[in-house]
Amino acid sequence: MGAQSIEVGTEPPSPAEVVAVARDGARVGLSAAAEGAMAASRAHIEELAARPTPVYGVSTGFGALASRHIPPELRTRLQLNIVRSHAAGTGPEVEREVVRAMMLLRLKTLATGRTGARPETARALAALLNAGITPVVHEYGSLGCSGDLAPLAHVALALLGEGRVRDADDRLIPAADALKRADLRPVELGAKEGLALLNGTDGMLGMLVLALHDLRGLLTAADIATAMSVEALLGTDRVFDADLQALRPHPGQAASAANLRLLLAGSPIVESHRGPDDTRVQDAYSLRCAPQVNGAFRDTVAHAALVADRELAAAVDNPVVLSDGRVESNGNFHGAPIAYALDFLAIPIADAASMAERRTDRMLDKARSFGLPPFLAADPGVDSGHMIAQYTQASIVAELKRLAVPASVDSIPSSAMQEDHVSLGWNAARKLRRAVDGYARVVAIELFTAARALDLRAPLSPGPATAAVLAALRRHVPPPGPDRHLSPEIDAATALVRDGALVAAAESVTGPLA
């Protein structure tokens, strides 16, 4: 596991810390402040548990069964049963990074001292993370209200030594065996602790944080691909001038246009047709309006990041222990704020991808490419060039449009109409993950195609920044030639887009890009 260590306290973790735990195996521990806050709230729960007055989640059933008062001798079984019964997910396994993010975020909420869980229960969850034990969580099961109940129940089940997990070597084994090998003991739940481990929006929030991390890098890569397409299509950079962009003062638009100016600075290709001999008045929308579209995408990411930051600072549970010791029911577990942000992001992904595909298609069409060979083929007719790469890109874009249909506008009542409106935020998060993956491939195919087109513009050469990107790509993808197997080259380009290598190549010339 990772060497980095993160202290989980009463203050929220940063998005970067969530990514470090989820993807890099960073270790976690509880701060002294968190232990103190948890001990104080636990004392209130113990006192309430001793009273004859029913308290939801402490001495009552759950959901539509909350009207039943549970006698003291059945309360341990009550907490055990909620975990077992709610671990009802089905379908494929959810990715390890998602489960680890979810575990950290539930630990974060326990550490606030607002759930009434014991410090030792939180320490057990941290120990599970540090041992690299990842509970098996399934694709289907969450309605996003009361939070991600079924996914979190599968995590809690592993704490009890039940269900299945992936160990640090990714072997699928019984949770009891994994705990024993890691020298960990199963948790014995106290009053309210079963509910405290389940009642949160941690799955959908974890997926939002991971998506935002990925999209920030992809947005910069998208600007790089756009700049290369502008050069390849003999477009102008004048439309990206700061004074023109300032007429519509959206911050994302300004950032995207600034990137394009840096990336196209000193381009011999752009300079080659800057003059009275160029009779074109305007470029096509897919070139001219790129900062407006990619910029609006950036602004949507900024809004979603604001939502994520607020949620990271939240304590989502029901009932919740307040600072004065009151234990109150509430609706903070409803996933609507996160669900909307997840759905919002899927819309500009589909639109920006659609614009990227139009630029790709333009480079392949001899009627619109200003002198490039049909489909960028070495011997058009004998060779097909990038014809089918564009088909692949178009297929992904079509799927992205379907994934842009919001999940959060739907609701299926549950729990005998007690839970009569749900967010379906988990569903929004799952489709966003697929959309982010598709968008990375769309950007890669545009960049991969633009690189071939730039090579075919020789003896004209691209600007210093895009030339550096082209050189970085060529270390993994060969230059133009007769037809060859394209799938591995597309995958190589996608990997370079995802890991930031092409952004780093551009920034070696431009300095930091937005």
Automatic annotation (TrEMBL):
GO terms for biological process: L-histidine catabolic process to glutamate and formamide; L-histidine catabolic process to glutamate and formate. It is found in: Cytoplasm. One of its GO terms (cellular component) is cytoplasm. Its EC number is 4.3.1.3. It catalyses: L-histidine = trans-urocanate + NH4(+). Pathway: Amino-acid degradation; L-histidine degradation into L-glutamate; N-formimidoyl-L-glutamate from L-histidine: step 1/3. The keyword Lyase applies. Pfam families: Lyase_aromatic. Keywords: Histidine metabolism, Lyase. It comes from the Bacteria. GO terms for molecular function: histidine ammonia-lyase activity. SUPFAM superfamilies: L-aspartase-like. PANTHER family: HISTIDINE AMMONIA-LYASE. NCBIfam families: hutH (TIGR01225), PRK09367.1 (NF006871). Belongs to the PAL/histidase family. This is Histidine ammonia-lyase.
